[in-house]
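Input record, target 12 of the design panel.
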């Protein structure tokens, strides 16, 4: 999103202050949590936000830690998980470029209900809770966006449950890849988590089933090399995913 009245100098200033690029500012502004906010409101909200880079395996927070910030994924993959009493880890969700996570944790008890770790080297925008909660006190548009974002996430979980029961593994993978391609010009190259079992768990299938699903998408111009996926024709993949929607 770009307001006609927003000068490139304002965007560049916010980029320099936070450590983002101008393109990343646009990416953040387009996130559902911030979409539609006046640029001045976005800049004020992100006044104390900073970009940090994290290697694979970094633990961002643990279940029960004070929720003192939330995050925007600029690049990489983040895994949310819970630890069971016997020490096992259950993957709850995966977050990728352009997505926000942990914002709801600052409401209510103010503690993270899950753990978060970096599944692939990540570049994250850290937004302090103080800035966010302060903005919620005065910015009705941000409050509406937060409620809408949480509602969309709830609906997404409902759709995910429905998808697991009604769509094939190939259909699920196609829809997931299309979502990752949003805002990118084809051909698109995506870097998936090195541990493909995480992606398989996200899509409700076994790793070997995921491999077979990728093989079946080759006819639509989807190719893999290691943990990189190249999509030649995003629209063809989107048409397939839409035509197979329940």
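The sequence produced for target 12 reads:
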């Amino acid at each position: 999103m770009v307001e006609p009245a927003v000068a490139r100098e304002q965007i560049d200033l916010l980029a320099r202050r936070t450590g983002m690029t101008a393109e990343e500012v646009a990416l953040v502004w387009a996130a559902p949590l911030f979409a539609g906010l006046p640029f001045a409101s976005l800049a004020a909200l992100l006044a104390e936000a900073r970009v940090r880079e994290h290697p694979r395996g970094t633990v961002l927070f643990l279940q029960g830690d004070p929720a003192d910030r939330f995050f925007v994924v600029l690049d990489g993959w983040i895994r949310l998980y819970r630890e069971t009493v016997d020490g096992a880890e259950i993957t709850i969700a995966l977050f990728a470029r352009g997505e926000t996570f942990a914002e709801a944790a600052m409401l209510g008890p103010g503690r993270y209900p899950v753990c978060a770790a970096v599944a692939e080297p990540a570049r994250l925008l850290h937004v302090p809770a103080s800035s966010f909660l302060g903005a919620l006190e005065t910015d009705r548009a941000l409050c509406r966006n937060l409620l809408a974002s949480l509602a969309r996430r709830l609906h997404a979980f409902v759709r995910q449950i429905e998808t697991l029961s009604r769509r094939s593994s190939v259909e699920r993978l196609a829809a997931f890849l299309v979502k990752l391609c949003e805002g990118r010009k084809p051909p698109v190259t995506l870097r998936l988590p090195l541990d493909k079992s995480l992606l398989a768990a996200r899509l409700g299938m076994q790793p070997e089933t995921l491999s077979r699903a990728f093989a079946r998408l080759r006819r639509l111009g989807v190719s893999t090399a290691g943990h990189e996926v190249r999509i030649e024709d995003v629209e063809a993949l989107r048409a397939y995913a839409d035509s197979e929607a329940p």
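The first helix runs from residue 8 to 18.
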